[in-house]
Each structure stands twice: as C-alpha cells, then as structure tokens.
Amino acid sequence: MQNTAVPRERLLSVRHNAVEVTRRRAHVYDWPVTNLNTWVLEVVRQSPLLPPGAEVTVPWFDPEGGGEEASLLFLMQDPSEVATGTGFISPDNDDPTAQNTTVACAAAGIPRAGRVHWNVFPHWVNVTREGRPADPTRAPQTYGEARPVAVRFLRELIDDHLPNLTVIVLLGGEAQRGWDMYRNGGGSLPAGVLEPFRCPSCSPRAWNNKDKVTGVKNSVLTIETLKEAWALAS
After folding, report:
1. pLDDT, tens digit (0-9, with 9 covering 90-100), for 95-118
2. In sequence order, which residues have a C-beta less than 8 Å from that of residue 73 and are 6 or more positions away?
3. Could you state, in order of their start, the residue ranges of all structural domains in the chain?
4. Domain over 8-233 is classified CATH 3.40.250.10
5. Rounded to whole angstroms, how far apart are CA atoms 178 and 34?
6. Is this model's pTM higher than 0.85 or not?
7. For the chain, first and last CA: distance in Å?
8. 44-88 per-position pLDDT tens digit
C-alpha cells in the first residue's frame, strides 16, 4: 500500500482492494457526479482531440467527492497510471500523490463534499522518460502538445458542469501552464469564480522539497494555500 492516509476499506486499489473499486464503479452515474461522468463518457472519451488509445485513461469523477455540488475545484496535472487502473481521479487512489492530497485536505479542513478533483489534462499524457514513453502501447506526447486538449475541456467543465464553483486551486507547474494557455486563449471565468490559487503539487517530489525563494517546505505552502482557498469557498 502507498496511501496509508485512507482507511483500508476506502482504498481504491486494483491490487489491494478491488472490491472497493468495483463498488464505486457501480455508482459513477449517481448524484452528484451524474452529469459530470456522462460528459466524461459521451464527450471527453469520444473526442478526436485525444491521441489514439488515450480515451481509456480518462478517469471518472469520484462519486464520493463533491461533484457538481462542490464549490472548490482541485486541478492537478494529468491522471496517473494508478488512476488509469482504478478508473477514478480520487484522493483514495493507492499512490503517494493521493496520500499527500488526503493529508493536505485534512490539514486544511476541507471536507469531501466541498471539493471536486480533476486534471488540466483529462488523459494520461504519454511523456517520454529516460528515452521511453510512459505507456509503451501508445505514441509519445509532450505536455505542450496536449495543452490544446486541456483548453477545450477546461472551458466545458467550468462553463457547463460546476454550477456552485467559486474557487479553483492549481496544483503544480504543468497545471498552471495549462491554465495559463486556457486564459491566454480567451478562456473566461464564470461570474463569481475567483482567479485561481496556485501552489506546489502533492506529488512526492514537490511535496518533500523546499521553495527555492523562501526555503519553506512545499507541503507547508500547499496546506496554507488550501486553507486560504477553503476560507473563501466555504
């Protein structure tokens, strides 16, 4: 297990708790993620903008999160291999980033019902590492090449599917660069939605490093940012 911040019975893990993965998949069209996951199935996964084979890596919104009722949107980078396996973007996934997200939200006092998790890039971007694509079954892609996809679906998500949204948090550099491309391309914010907060991601590397300017640990910066965001969203 890599996510010990989540009770074993809630853990989303194909290896360690397949029963919970199956149980939650049975609820992907339940409220409050009914329309969000219909959008995932009928629009995002069917889009010709996605690279061949990438549609299966677009995860479901977690039915145990805030869904359409959430006032706070977490935007991270792209789905992990673990998320692709379970089929969910969720802080209950069995990976270190999900664990750090759970810890950060608990420290900031943000309940599940108040937040919805998503990625700037809706699919797992098949970047090349050490000379090989992360997923050898698909053609490689850079984050730069994937940003037009991010722009398209960010617009739809924010404009059409989150009616209670007031605050957005961008976690990590790629999420922030994808958002900037969205805004520079004319993407707008609905009335009542604030300009996003920015903070380090919850990935292990970022979480355990220190800010180069202040020397403050990134985990502290992320938690403090989430506290500020939730104070405005709640």
Report:
1. 999 999 999 999 999 999 999 999
2. 115, 116, 118, 158, 162, 165, 167, 168, 169
3. 8-233
4. no
5. 26
6. yes
7. 32
8. 999 999 999 999 999 999 999 999 999 999 999 999 999 999 999
